[in-house]
Design goal:
2 copies of one chain form a homodimer.
Chain A lengths: L4 H19 L1 H5 L6 E3 L10 H10 L15 H15 L8 E4 L2 H12 L5 E6 L5 H7 L3 E6 L9 H7 L4 E7 L11 H18 L4 E5 L22 E6 L12 E5 L5 H17 L7 H5 L1 H5 L5 H17 L3 E2 L7 E5 L5 H10 L2 E5 L8 E5 L4 H11 L7
Chain lengths: 392, 392
């Protein structure tokens, strides 16, 4: 048939998510105004007015080049090198930063920079939906290991055991979607030691992708450590889509750890621009690049996320669910009560409460709640969640 | 070394262009306000005010989902199916249209939809700079044939001769960058017949990519025929970056020819969304999608392009250049006078007139002038071009 083999593989890897989104009971109801939608990390309240004014302000041209081709522009690069450097305690140069049209583009860039045909990349499940199809589209091989339930910490020995001659990249996502875990500095240091030993063992450098789009969404004043501080061969992907809850505006970046040895660091710095052009000119548009300094200051209401979390947790527990207390992200991950997960999901859906079934993330006994639902949805759904054990 | 082999190939294929842009005499002078810059298709005048107002208007949220994830949204798809359908005389369905962040993303999407590792794609030189690095990034194999100088028509027998068992895609760019040629309906029909015969000969379907970002930029009221009208297995890539001279705002689309047989057409329609997600969520941002109907009506001042062309042509001819009269695009393609092309280029550069050397497009005896230079640049450069034969 007509479609390339790689995209057929991508379609197979995307099938269950797309079926859920487009064809499931959720797909049929998702546009209805009265449902309680806890599925995806999409906004259910009006955007921050400061985002609107940033876009409107920077749409007004100051010179003839205002809408000319923009790659990774000097001003946002310098700005981010300084601000992200201060945030993470890492001495970025502007050339370490590549502006991208969201974290997707940053991840695609890192895959292309580090992986050739048949190279393997390891990630831990449950995981974000798109690592697998993105690796397949890039002709790389996804290798999945399980996170260590019930804490969903990284299973370092499973990662170590999965590393072989073909392994070129390990992906870590912290704060973690869907579990809300933030990995500790100690665990990341152990991971770094593991990758150092494994690189020596396999005879080539294993790189680390630290996918950190939820980095600024943390509960209870928790600290965050970037893997880039522990393992010099780390690339960071970041998106403003989460902290601004505006994923439609496509703004993010890739950052090279400044701890990387100089020769390799220069090589990746120099490769980033031609690579990003060649994968589809995946730079943010001009207006969004001008807006970086304004947007960098903003965040959605994190107190609201905590409030919703704290409303839901006791109700879920009472209903026999086993929720994990999220440390970061805007998700709440929970085990279903005993019984059949599908029937639990359907019983909620019968009452127009929609959650993300863990089966979409290879964790069928779990579900994910997105705390980006409105307070009104939370209040309306509480009595439904209170009977979550009566559906299975 | 660290960087993947494919990106090293991309770097090698991008080297001369990047050296010109960043390190050449042009690279050192390009930001200077007093130069006459005829190199790239970038704006040298203020943007159309209607672009600014479209962005500012559509940045104002009308609902909670205003900046939510946007894929190929229903409204711009329907709008484009109708409007592009009327323009090209083709009955597009909304599902034939995939909104992309510029033509780069449309081209990357088409490459991924049709090409697997080692598959060959044929294009004609001189050509746009990025087909080759984009094919290499996608693990495909570029096969180049020459256009038929001095008319720079497609060399159909050269294309036919280049087609083999590995050929999956042929790329045609009309109106053509850099030559300004618009291929006639007769020639495109002959190409379609050729591809039909060749597909039968090699035993699989050869697809056609019709790269048409300059489609609305035509001189002297000339007609345009899309290859999608002649060859059913055609994908169109389009960008608003040319007709609006705002390439920094990243808006374009991929369109499947509605003449494609239903089963294949459906297969590509269904594959486009997961493919586009997997290559890096390469949809235009939310604001740009809302702006499509407003932007669709606009164009830069095409009379100004014709005026600049007509000022330059006689002067170039008198100086011993052999310009091709452009039929479309905003470029003017010319042969240098006798002598050494490098010395001709340098003599212009000595007087702060910068053109694109044809050597960057594997055509060292030629150069390209972008008519996006301002009228003032044209007037200032005319006496310099008048002595173009005195530099070699």
């Amino acid at each position: 048939m007509a479609v390339s083999s790689r995209i057929k593989d991508v379609q197979a890897a995307s099938r269950s998510l797309n079926a859920f989104y487009f064809q499931s009971r959720y797909g049929k109801r998702r546009a209805a105004p009265d449902i309680c939608d806890f599925t995806f990390g999409n906004p259910h309240e009006m955007p921050l007015p400061e985002i609107v004014s940033a876009i409107r302000t920077h749409a007004v041209p100051k010179d003839e080049n205002w809408f000319a081709y923009k790659a990774s522009e000097a001003e946002p690069r310098s700005f981010l090198a300084e601000h992200v450097g201060r945030e993470l305690g890492l001495a970025f140069e502007p050339a370490d930063i590549a502006l991208t049209s969201g974290a997707f583009a940053a991840i695609a860039l890192i895959f292309h920079l580090t992986l050739d045909q048949g190279d393997e990349a390891i990630f831990s499940e449950p995981a974000w939906f798109c690592y697998e199809p993105m690796l397949l589209a890039a002709h790389a091989v996804p290798r999945k290991v399980a996170l260590a339930a019930p804490s969903f910490d990284l299973d370092l020995s499973a990662i170590d055991a999965a590393i072989g001659q073909k392994t070129k990249l390990v992906i870590v996502n912290t704060p973690h979607n869907p579990t809300g875990r933030i990995y500790t500095g100690r665990m990341l240091r152990d991971l770094a030691d593991l990758l150092e030993r494994a690189s020596a063992r396999v005879g080539h450098r294993i790189y680390l992708l630290s996918d950190e789009p939820y980095r600024r969404l943390r509960f209870d004043g928790r600290a965050f450590d970037s893997p880039a501080s522990f393992y010099p061969w780390t690339f960071i992907s970041y998106s403003y889509g989460k902290v601004l809850l505006s994923p439609g505006q496509r703004l993010g970046y890739m950052a090279i750890s400044p701890l990387m040895p100089p020769e390799e660091r220069r090589a990746f710095q120099q490769a980033a621009f031609p690579a990003q052009v060649a994968i589809g000119w995946s730079f943010p548009n001009a207006v969004m690049q001008y807006a970086v300094p304004d947007l960098e200051k903003l965040s959605i209401d994190q107190a609201a996320l905590a409030r919703r979390r704290d409303r839901l947790l006791p109700v879920l527990r009472q209903a026999g669910c086993e929720p994990l207390v999220p440390e970061g992200t805007f998700y709440l991950w929970s085990r279903w009560p005993d019984g059949e997960p599908d029937r639990h999901w359907s019983a909620l859906a019968d009452r127009d409460v929609f959650v993300l079934p863990g089966s979409l993330m290879n964790a069928e006994h779990y579900f994910r709640i997105s705390l980006t639902a409105s307070d009104a949805m939370v209040e309306k759904a509480l009595p439904v969640f209170a009977q979550a054990d009566q559906g299975g």
